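BUG: 3D viewer hangs when loading the predicted structure for this chain

Environment: internal workstation, default settings.
Expected: structure renders.
Actual: progress bar stalls at 90%.

Input used:
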Amino acid sequence: MWVSIFTVAAAPLVLSQIVFAQETTDNAVTISPMRIVHVLRPGDLPRGDSAETSRIDAAATAPAGVPGAVSAGLHINPTFDVSITSDPNAAVIEATINAAIANIESQFSDPITVNIVFKKGNGLGASSTYYGNLPYSTFLAALKSDARTSDDGTAVARLPSVTTNPVNGSSTINVKTANLRAVGINSNPPSGQPDGFIFLNTAITTPGSPGSSLTYSLMAVVEHEMDEVLGLGSSLPDVSFSTIFPQDLYRYTSTLNTRTFTPTDSRVSGVRAFFSIDGSTLLAEFDNQNDGGDFGDWQSNPRRTGVAVKVQDAFATPGAAAPALGPELTALDVVGYDRATKRPRADFDGDSKTDITVYRPSTGVWYVLNSRTNFTTFATYQWGVSTDIPVSGDYDGDGKADVAVYRPSTGVWYILKSSTNYSAFVTYQWGVNTDVPTVGDYDGDGKTDVAVYRPSTGVWYILKSSTNFTTFASYQWGVSTDIPIAGDYDGDGKTDVAVYRPSTGVWYILTSSTNFTNFVSYQWGVSTDMPIAGDYDGDGKTDVAVYRPSTGVWYILTSSTNFTTFASYQWGVSTDVPVAGDYDGDGKTDVAVYRPSTGVWYILTSSSNFTTFFAPQWGISTDIPVIKTSAP
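Structure tokens produced before the viewer hung:
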């Protein structure tokens, strides 16, 4: 269980000047001589639940993705104490820590470095983090200035620009040093100290030390503790400096728009506390139970029926695999970190919006309506022949989509590079005439890989951009009637190998976060549905979604709820072609269709909560919408 306590660190009182947009102010952040400490002890298996089988290899082998996903800007600098480096299994322990670091780094674009010392410890895990106390108005101004995502906008809209916080009325707030830098306040821990320390009991984790009981996921413990060093956690029950931490700003009861900030046991009072950014949508329940768990963690003692295991659970679940980060990412986002925006499909002008683009087989011409100019100007490229398949993607890693085609008759890929202003090209012979091109970033290097799915054998062949397209990987995943539907379902920054089986409506997803060794499956769809994967909820993970031509309804199983809830939208007619993409640039996939009979695109925007649309005319009946076959 997680326990929130305070211990005195051997460090002097330090004052740091506040910086906004390179301008100093007269305010000062007081760095507490105490570090806030969160302690994790092994949790019991919740009553009525059976142990879940870990998907992390119990043997001493590194987990998937080492060194892991590519950083989106955030840099976490680990220092390994001798207690870890001297362990006979140090290599795999350090590799797991590095993989967890890379996973979190890939989710946030803040250009800061966070220093963390990793040591062995008792219990299961613990973190000890420096924090500062500063005027609430100063932090709020920085938080609002730093708002980047739609979730940020929703969250800060409920925080009026006043001098006292809306939770307990204090004029100050506690903020961890890394969190301060994330919002632009130049503040550091005492000289020679890291932002935080993390302690791990590798005698009971998987992977772990020789003889470990292999009971708990080391990856999950590391991610949990790093989230707290970065900024998560509550000031309850002790209420340091008589004020809150940023996460307390989003603490609500189940009653609409009602805040709560009390250590009273919810099992006694009947009033439960929830994490919400809008005061009504409850994303997770806080552990407000006085059961020894951390008040800033999620309730899991016992885990309520139907509630999935989460990284920030107060009580760890024995045998559970490391869950994907979900509400934790939202929480870090709204306390001041910047969620990394994944490059949208078919973004030829590099403005982080999908461009409206068609390929005309009869002439081999690409017509690109640029989002950068609000879809008022266009570019054309003559690239391809009538039998080619458009396979747009960012093969050169310059942040713009390349104009590319796959020629089934020869198995050759022709890629006109955006990094040369579409003046030079490369070719790769990769595939046979019956293969299906399935482009994506499978190795997580920020570039699109050349990849095909072979229905006759169910094998995926991936030519990796990280080796300059000189080596490949292959995976047997699927049967001849499956539809390949690649996407980043686990949110690790790498494309997963996935298929949709129309005969049963089941999605089979081989996850890159397990080095393509384990999978998940979801029953979602019927035989006539069209799988249309995308990140509709903006959590950095691909959602499981289908378009039903017979009714024009989209059914979206959202990853932000661990694929337990869904949304549906009636948008389209039976002859429409689904063309989901991020046309409004808000980091979420829009619901959209292309109507060949008229050449009109109907785009229902996620930035309006799918309530408004626009409908440009771009194309003719024989054109192919490029986004339909472009890299996810």
